[in-house]
Amino acid sequence: MAQNEKAGFFIPALVGGAVAGVLTGVPLINCLCCLWIIGGGIIAAYFLNKESRAPLTTGDGAIVGVFAGIVAAVIDFLISIPLAPISNAFFRNMMERFAEYADEIPAGWDNWIERGFAESTLPMMLFGMVINALIFAVMGALGGIIGVSLFKKKKSPDNGAVIDVPKDTDSI
Q1: Of 57, 87, 121, 125, which has the most beta carbons under 10 Å away?
Q2: Is 158 part of any domain?
Protein backbone atom coordinates (compact mmCIF):
# COMPACT_ATOMS: atom_id res chain seq x y z
CA MET A 1 0.00 0.00 0.00
CA ALA A 2 1.13 3.53 -0.68
CA GLN A 3 2.24 5.66 2.24
CA ASN A 4 -0.71 8.05 1.90
CA GLU A 5 -3.20 5.17 2.24
CA LYS A 6 -1.80 4.00 5.60
CA ALA A 7 -3.49 6.90 7.39
CA GLY A 8 -6.66 4.80 7.38
CA PHE A 9 -5.41 2.44 10.13
CA PHE A 10 -6.48 4.68 13.01
CA ILE A 11 -10.29 4.65 12.68
CA PRO A 12 -10.62 0.90 11.93
CA ALA A 13 -8.39 0.12 14.92
CA LEU A 14 -10.51 2.37 17.14
CA VAL A 15 -13.76 0.75 16.01
CA GLY A 16 -12.50 -2.83 16.33
CA GLY A 17 -10.75 -2.10 19.61
CA ALA A 18 -13.79 -0.34 21.06
CA VAL A 19 -16.08 -3.26 20.27
CA ALA A 20 -13.60 -5.79 21.67
CA GLY A 21 -12.78 -3.65 24.72
CA VAL A 22 -16.39 -3.16 25.73
CA LEU A 23 -17.23 -6.84 25.33
CA THR A 24 -14.11 -7.83 27.25
CA GLY A 25 -14.69 -5.34 30.06
CA VAL A 26 -18.28 -6.27 30.92
CA PRO A 27 -18.58 -8.99 33.56
CA LEU A 28 -20.15 -12.34 32.60
CA ILE A 29 -19.65 -11.84 28.85
CA ASN A 30 -15.93 -11.31 29.32
CA CYS A 31 -15.44 -15.05 29.70
CA LEU A 32 -14.99 -15.13 25.90
CA CYS A 33 -12.19 -12.57 26.17
CA CYS A 34 -9.85 -14.00 23.51
CA LEU A 35 -12.72 -14.49 21.10
CA TRP A 36 -13.79 -10.86 21.51
CA ILE A 37 -10.24 -9.64 20.85
CA ILE A 38 -9.89 -11.78 17.73
CA GLY A 39 -13.30 -10.49 16.63
CA GLY A 40 -12.14 -6.91 17.21
CA GLY A 41 -9.16 -7.56 14.93
CA ILE A 42 -11.47 -8.98 12.28
CA ILE A 43 -13.74 -5.93 12.55
CA ALA A 44 -10.73 -3.61 12.26
CA ALA A 45 -9.54 -5.49 9.15
CA TYR A 46 -13.05 -5.28 7.66
CA PHE A 47 -13.18 -1.50 8.05
CA LEU A 48 -9.60 -1.11 6.82
CA ASN A 49 -10.44 -3.17 3.74
CA LYS A 50 -13.58 -1.11 3.18
CA GLU A 51 -11.59 2.16 3.25
CA SER A 52 -8.66 0.89 1.21
CA ARG A 53 -8.50 1.10 -2.56
CA ALA A 54 -5.59 -1.31 -2.81
CA PRO A 55 -5.62 -4.96 -1.74
CA LEU A 56 -4.46 -5.48 1.83
CA THR A 57 -1.57 -7.68 2.85
CA THR A 58 -1.49 -9.95 5.87
CA GLY A 59 0.96 -7.46 7.39
CA ASP A 60 -1.67 -4.72 7.09
CA GLY A 61 -4.16 -6.95 8.88
CA ALA A 62 -1.66 -7.77 11.61
CA ILE A 63 -0.83 -4.09 12.16
CA VAL A 64 -4.43 -2.94 12.40
CA GLY A 65 -5.16 -5.94 14.64
CA VAL A 66 -2.30 -5.04 17.00
CA PHE A 67 -3.59 -1.47 17.24
CA ALA A 68 -7.14 -2.75 17.85
CA GLY A 69 -5.83 -5.05 20.60
CA ILE A 70 -4.07 -2.16 22.34
CA VAL A 71 -7.19 0.01 22.11
CA ALA A 72 -9.22 -2.90 23.51
CA ALA A 73 -6.84 -3.23 26.47
CA VAL A 74 -7.20 0.45 27.33
CA ILE A 75 -10.99 0.38 27.01
CA ASP A 76 -11.17 -2.85 29.02
CA PHE A 77 -9.10 -1.17 31.74
CA LEU A 78 -11.34 1.91 31.81
CA ILE A 79 -14.53 -0.16 31.92
CA SER A 80 -13.21 -2.56 34.56
CA ILE A 81 -12.47 0.25 37.05
CA PRO A 82 -16.11 1.08 37.85
CA LEU A 83 -17.22 -2.53 37.44
CA ALA A 84 -14.50 -3.98 39.70
CA PRO A 85 -16.73 -4.20 42.80
CA ILE A 86 -19.30 -6.20 40.83
CA SER A 87 -16.64 -8.51 39.39
CA ASN A 88 -15.00 -8.96 42.79
CA ALA A 89 -18.32 -9.78 44.46
CA PHE A 90 -19.18 -12.24 41.71
CA PHE A 91 -15.79 -13.96 41.98
CA ARG A 92 -15.97 -14.07 45.78
CA ASN A 93 -19.48 -15.57 45.64
CA MET A 94 -18.36 -18.12 43.07
CA MET A 95 -15.40 -19.16 45.22
CA GLU A 96 -17.64 -19.50 48.30
CA ARG A 97 -20.02 -21.73 46.36
CA PHE A 98 -17.11 -23.73 45.06
CA ALA A 99 -15.76 -24.16 48.61
CA GLU A 100 -19.04 -25.73 49.71
CA TYR A 101 -18.51 -28.61 47.32
CA ALA A 102 -14.73 -28.98 47.39
CA ASP A 103 -12.99 -31.02 50.06
CA GLU A 104 -9.38 -30.05 49.46
CA ILE A 105 -9.36 -26.25 49.53
CA PRO A 106 -6.39 -25.00 51.58
CA ALA A 107 -7.10 -23.50 54.97
CA GLY A 108 -7.26 -19.72 54.93
CA TRP A 109 -8.20 -19.43 51.26
CA ASP A 110 -10.89 -16.88 52.09
CA ASN A 111 -8.30 -14.62 53.76
CA TRP A 112 -6.12 -14.92 50.69
CA ILE A 113 -8.98 -13.88 48.41
CA GLU A 114 -9.98 -10.97 50.65
CA ARG A 115 -6.38 -9.77 50.82
CA GLY A 116 -6.05 -10.08 47.06
CA PHE A 117 -9.11 -7.93 46.43
CA ALA A 118 -8.09 -5.37 49.02
CA GLU A 119 -4.58 -4.99 47.56
CA SER A 120 -5.72 -3.93 44.10
CA THR A 121 -3.50 -0.88 43.89
CA LEU A 122 -3.04 1.41 40.93
CA PRO A 123 0.43 0.05 40.08
CA MET A 124 -0.93 -3.50 40.05
CA MET A 125 -3.86 -2.44 37.89
CA LEU A 126 -1.53 -0.68 35.45
CA PHE A 127 0.73 -3.73 35.36
CA GLY A 128 -2.34 -5.85 34.53
CA MET A 129 -3.26 -3.44 31.74
CA VAL A 130 0.23 -3.73 30.24
CA ILE A 131 0.03 -7.53 30.35
CA ASN A 132 -3.45 -7.37 28.78
CA ALA A 133 -2.14 -5.01 26.08
CA LEU A 134 0.56 -7.49 25.14
CA ILE A 135 -1.81 -10.44 25.04
CA PHE A 136 -4.56 -8.46 23.29
CA ALA A 137 -2.07 -7.19 20.69
CA VAL A 138 -1.13 -10.76 19.75
CA MET A 139 -4.77 -11.89 19.65
CA GLY A 140 -5.76 -8.76 17.70
CA ALA A 141 -3.01 -9.43 15.16
CA LEU A 142 -4.39 -12.93 14.69
CA GLY A 143 -7.86 -11.47 14.18
CA GLY A 144 -6.52 -8.89 11.72
CA ILE A 145 -4.82 -11.61 9.66
CA ILE A 146 -8.02 -13.66 9.66
CA GLY A 147 -10.00 -10.56 8.69
CA VAL A 148 -7.74 -9.75 5.76
CA SER A 149 -8.05 -13.31 4.48
CA LEU A 150 -11.85 -13.09 4.76
CA PHE A 151 -12.35 -9.65 3.20
CA LYS A 152 -9.36 -9.40 0.84
CA LYS A 153 -9.89 -7.59 -2.45
CA LYS A 154 -8.69 -9.34 -5.56
CA LYS A 155 -5.74 -7.84 -7.41
CA SER A 156 -6.48 -6.49 -10.86
CA PRO A 157 -3.94 -5.87 -13.62
CA ASP A 158 -2.28 -2.46 -13.54
CA ASN A 159 -4.06 -1.17 -16.62
CA GLY A 160 -7.40 -2.73 -15.72
CA ALA A 161 -7.62 -4.70 -18.98
CA VAL A 162 -8.87 -8.26 -19.00
CA ILE A 163 -6.24 -10.62 -20.27
CA ASP A 164 -7.61 -13.20 -22.67
CA VAL A 165 -5.44 -16.27 -23.04
CA PRO A 166 -5.95 -17.94 -26.46
CA LYS A 167 -6.65 -21.65 -26.52
CA ASP A 168 -4.08 -23.91 -28.09
CA THR A 169 -6.10 -25.61 -30.84
CA ASP A 170 -3.19 -27.67 -32.18
CA SER A 171 -3.04 -29.93 -29.13
CA ILE A 172 -6.70 -30.99 -29.33
Answers
A1: 87
A2: no
Quick check: is 115 in a domain?
yes
> pLDDT digits over 48-71, tens only?
999 888 888 999 999 999 999 999
DSSP string for the chain: --GGGGGGGHHHHHHHHHHHHHHHHSTTTGGGHHHHHHHHHHHHHHHHHHH-SSPPPHHHHHHHHHHHHHHHHHHHHHHHHHHHHHHHHHHHHHHHHHHHH-S-PPTTHHHHHHHHHHT--HHHHHHHHHHHHHHHHHHHHHHHHHHHHHHPPPP--TT-PPPPPPP--TT-
> What domain count does the chain have?
1
Is 46 part of a structural domain of the chain?
yes
Angle between helices 33-51 and 122-151 (to 10 degrees): 50
Rounded to whole angstroms, the Cα distance separating 119 from 167 reads 76
